[in-house]
Amino acid sequence: MKALVIPPAAQRDENSIQMLSAWIAEKGQHCTIKIGMWQDNGRDEASAWGVFLADTIRHIANALQERYGHAAPDTIAAILESLHDELSEPTSPATGTFSPGHG
After folding, report:
1. Which residues on neighbouring strands pair with residue 28, listed in sequence order?
2. Whether 18 contacts 9, CB under 8 Å
3. Residues whose CB falls within 8 Å of the CB of residue 19, separated by 6 or more in sequence, listed in order
4. Cross-strand bridge partners of residue 30
């Protein structure tokens, strides 16, 4: 198993919350997702996830720019194109169950 490190800010902040963990295992994607945090705090859950995922895409683009020199705007455009393609015509089904977790 090859886990990522927990960011230093998350380690320092006693109120930090892990929102998403995604793994590639057994030839597929497996996720744990904290659903309901925003809704439980009076915000629109879908819109908040949109902001969260947009921030994540920007982090990916910035990391690819820093590591490989890819222009961040080009990376964002490529990710969005791939995202739209995959949502329109999935290469595999998203299966699994939702069960309320802890916290």
Report:
1. 25
2. no
3. 33, 34, 37, 52
4. 23
The length of the chain, given as a count of residues: 103
Please give the distance of CA 52 from its chain centroid, rounded to a whole number. Answer: 8
Distance CA 49, CA 31 (A): 15
CA distance 59 to 65: 10
Distance CA 34, CA 52 (A): 12
60 token code pair: 């990916």
The predicted-structure confidence for 68-100, as pLDDT tens digits, reads as follows 999 999 999 999 999 999 999 999 988 887 766
Distance of CA 62 to the CA centre of its chain: 15
3-class state of residue 11 by DSSP = helix
- For residues 40 and 48, the answer to whether their CB atoms sit within 8 Å is no
The whole model's pTM is what? 0.89
Beta bridge partners of 24: 29
Which secondary structure element, helix H or strand E, spans residue 70, and what is its range?
Answer: none
